[in-house]
Design a protein that fits this description.
This protein is an all-alpha fold. 86% of the residues lie in helices and 0% in strands. α1 packs antiparallel against α11 and α3 (58-76) crosses α9. 43% of the residues are buried. The model has no long low-confidence stretch (mean pLDDT 85).
Length: 262
Amino acid sequence: MFQYDFMQNAIMASTFIALTTGIVGVFVTARGMSFLAHTLSEIGFAGAAFAVFVGIRPLDGMLLTTMTSAVAVGKLSVKASRREASISAVSSLFTGLGILFLALSAKSSSYATTILFGSIIGISRADVWQLVGLAAVVLLTMAWAYRSLAFDSFDPVGAQAQGVRRNLIGIYFLLILAVSVSIGAQIVGSLLVFILLTLPPAVAKYLGRTLPQMLVISVAAALIGVWAGLALGYYTNWPVTFFIAAIECAFYFAALLARRRG
């Protein structure tokens, strides 16, 4: 398995994707933004389809649309009373746009499958280095903003009382969430990228008692899921996304059961 270049690329990419989504996902859960991760994945689908239409890398298209839309969508859905309708409208629009761009590009259905569900054989070494660079930016900036982000995510009232610039932190987090969605979709696809942003953190929430513990558990669950998924996909020739989804769901239900018994 390891002697093939495409598997080496997939393993390297999935490692950095798991690190990024595992860490960012803990804050997604803490801030109650799982719905936004799902919406950005559908926006990313439209961006990737647009990239195919104009002839650029799908990742570049996803980054363009998710980063330009993240702040607007995040602000639009702040109020719970209009969140459901806003998210439904945005999701429907961008899903329709994605289908339109794929139809206009006259590409085969395999392009749509790759965008929606990911592909381990479609990641080149250049794509890997782009993913590594983006993941490094996310992780390094999160290390720099860790205290303020953690304070604002887990104790927003206290953060406001202490003068934390919550609006700035909020915009920053929306942007790194957009980047995380875009790079995570390269393995599991735009349709299911929210799996890596929500299930490993949910496991960590049930099993961890402190924020560092939650971060470690979330990253571990994400890493095991993508590594095992790649290996099982290679040996069975079944979709990698299926295995990743099944493994992460198994982790979640096991953690839920352990929490109830505890």
